[in-house]
């Protein structure tokens, strides 16, 4: 699905389980913590996090999403690919919290492994990562992936469609 189609049909609201996931993720961080969002897309998670008083840096790999958020919300969105992992020059080298919503299902297994490897490089020691994957993955698959990347599972929620994961860099 291309970005224009996604923007047209994607939900503009955050559901109850997504709010719970984000709120628990934020509870691990100090207010004023720096959060880097990978895959900001339509901005629905970004806007919720910012309304909660956190400083968020938005990024996306797709220029159409960047253009959409720049126009709709007057926000700076950086071009960034988590698989490659090279942070834009103006971004601090260590981040307190990394938020990756609705991205991993679009990646190959190689892409997910690269994304988690690069996530660890971006996160400060004992920094937090929040991401979600579809239920097709299975809870054991998620736990094995975290173990492989030396990430400590802090919370795992689920609804009908998604696993919502919060983990910590060791």
Entry summary:
Helix content is 36%, strand content 28%. It is α/β, with parallel strands linked by helices. Strands 3-2-1-4-5-7-6 form a seven-stranded mixed sheet, sandwiched between helices.
The ordered string of helix (H) and strand (E) elements is HHEHEHEEHEHEE
Q: How much is the radius of gyration in Å?
A: 15 Å
Major beta sheet, strand line-up: 3-2-1-4-5-7-6
- What share of the residues lie within helices? 25-40%
Question: Tell me, what's the shape?
Answer: globular
Overall SS class: alpha/beta
Oligomer: single chain
Number of helices: 6
Low-confidence stretches: none
* Percentage of residues in DSSP E strands: 25-35%
Ends distance = 36 Å
CATH superfamily: Vaccinia Virus protein VP39
Mean of all residue-level pLDDT scores: 94
The CATH architecture is: 3-Layer(aba) Sandwich
Count of extended strands: 7
Largest sheet, in brief, is: 7 strands, mixed
CATH fold-level topology? Rossmann fold
The top level CATH class name: Alpha Beta
How many domains, as an integer? 1
């Amino acid at each position: 699905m291309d970005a224009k189609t996604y923007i047209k049909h994607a939900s503009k609201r955050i559901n109850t389980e997504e709010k719970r996931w984000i709120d628990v993720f934020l509870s691990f961080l100090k207010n004023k913590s720096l959060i880097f969002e990978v895959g900001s897309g339509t901005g629905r998670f970004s806007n919720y996090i910012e309304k909660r008083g956190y400083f968020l840096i938005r990024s996306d790999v797709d220029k159409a999403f960047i253009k959409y958020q720049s126009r709709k919300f007057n926000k700076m969105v950086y071009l960034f690919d988590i698989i490659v992992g090279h942070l834009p020059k103006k971004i601090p080298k260590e981040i307190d919290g990394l938020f990756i919503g609705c991205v991993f299902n679009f990646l190959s297994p190689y892409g997910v492994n690269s994304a988690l490897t690069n996530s660890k490089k971006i996160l400060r020691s004992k920094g937090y990562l929040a991401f979600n994957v579809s239920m097709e993955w299975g809870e054991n698959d998620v736990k094995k992936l975290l173990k492989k990347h030396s990430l400590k599972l802090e919370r795992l929620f689920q609804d009908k469609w998604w696993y919502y994961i919060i983990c910590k860099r060791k």
